[in-house]
Amino acid sequence: MTSVPYSDAIVSPAARAKPRADVSPRRDRIVGALFVAPLVVALIVTTLYPTLFLIALATSKSTLGKPFRKFVGTDQIVATLTDGNFQIAVAKSIAFAFASATAEVAVGFFVALAFVTLLKLGRTLLVIALLPLMTPPVMVAVAWKLILAPAGGLLNGVLMKAGIIDAPLSFLATPFLAWLSIGVADLWQWVPFVAILSFAALLSLPDGVQEAAMVDGASPLQRLRHITLPLVAAPLASIFLLKLIIGFKLFDLVYVLTFGGPGFATTTATFGIWRLALEQFDVGNAAAQTLVYAIVIGIVTIPVVRLHRFASENQP
Amino acid sequence: MTARVLSGLEFGRNPLRVLALGGALVSLAFFLLPIAYLLSVSFKRKDDVLAGNFLPVDPTLDNWPGAFAATSLTTFIANSVIVSVLAGILTIAITLPAAYAMIRMGVFRRFLPQATLASYIAPPVVGLIPFFFLLKTIGLLNTHAGLILVYGLLNIPVAFWLIGPFLRRVPVEIEEAAALDGAGRFRTLVSVVAPIIAPGIAATTIIVVILSFNEFLLASGLTLTDGMRTLTVGISLFQGDRLVNFGQMAAASLAGIVPIYLIAFLMQKHLVEGLAKGGVK
After folding, report:
1. Are B127 and A46 within 8 A, CB to CB?
2. pTM of the predicted protein model
3. N or C: which end of chain A has fewer CB within 10 A?
């Protein structure tokens, strides 16, 4: 079948988009437009509309019951930018996103490495590892809350019986331990996801290089460092980026485990906005905070995307 | 051969293999522990909950019916199932033709895929207030339809990311054959392409259904009455009680996630394949 090139599109072979010989290009373009129309509408509803609406709310005094009561210009945006508590909450969100993504990619990759070594067992283990991924974060938090409970929690019970501690610890009542608890619950939820994606990346590596290195007498650790890691660097960077974006969405674990406490220790930007909007009904300021937070995520994420693109293009 | 060569751990001769087995088993224990403990607590009596043992001393079945009696658990589960399944169907119905047009027909090939994936970066909290007022205006606040609409649209980037690789692997000759037989684009997509990538569509559908089923933040803001609350919101309300009955809370949590586990277990092959082949290439 010969393709008939038409005017406005230079079709790359990779996309394999072919004009059809039996219908006019114009008609085919109308069909194509109809196919993508619902998605375009969806994107407008989920991205453009919220952005414009948030700008409108942020520049006016608004409550949940009565939006747009009075135009206040940039007052709420300025208040948000100079709000120390909000700055700290944003900083905590960023720190959590990076720390959790780093820890989870590292642990997940080593879990995948262990599984890939035991290929026969590996698939079975991976299926079981899907459980945390399937579990709603709210239930994950409930399970960990029961484990960490000061009165009758499993962890305190085990530590007391082993004689490591004399009195039960309140894991969710001190800032450091509360963050650690949220971190562990998040790790539990996401490590399997990272492991499955890393597992796939490891399986798609070419054999020849490894065999050559083996013949040359390279040790397993040398091969991991000089061959496997450079080869999976790009997929791992993709996973890291994805996990970073997911990390910024942390909410459910905070809600159930600590409700932002003790004090405001685990109040992230997302949780603070939720409380401001749905508990204090201050929609105007909540909208201003949401806008600022979204922009901050963009500013933080874009360099990572750039780095990632640079790394993918300069693959060994 | 591949895997053994790849991590450099030859069978039988290598202490690293033992290390790998140990690591895999430890991580497995870690993955299973919270769920196992949740199961154990769901059979504990009130005083037993405070003892801090792993297994119940004097197991009871009372917590399970108790959880259903104490809350509108049945309604919550039904709401979650209705909303997440219909939202999943909506997501696929929008994503599949659009992905086909972008990948196979070259429609907006440069801009639209990037815009679709980029829209996933925004956290859900961005939509909380705008969607609240949108649904309020069109009269869908606190309804199944409202949540279905919001979830159905929000999961499109994930579905596109997962379905894309499957679409790209369909041999173009098959489509050309369909075209020669006189099938139009729509017929080709529905009767030729969709059956070929059915496993990918199945995995993607399950994943977006589970994402909606698990969602909490938007559900908490867009539902107002018990009759409309989803399971995650219902379980979170348990937290508000001063006298939390841990046994019932564990039973209620499990009652909601057992269906997901069953689906996941039955579809495990598709799920692992779908996750492994989607996206990270």
Report:
1. yes
2. 0.89
3. C
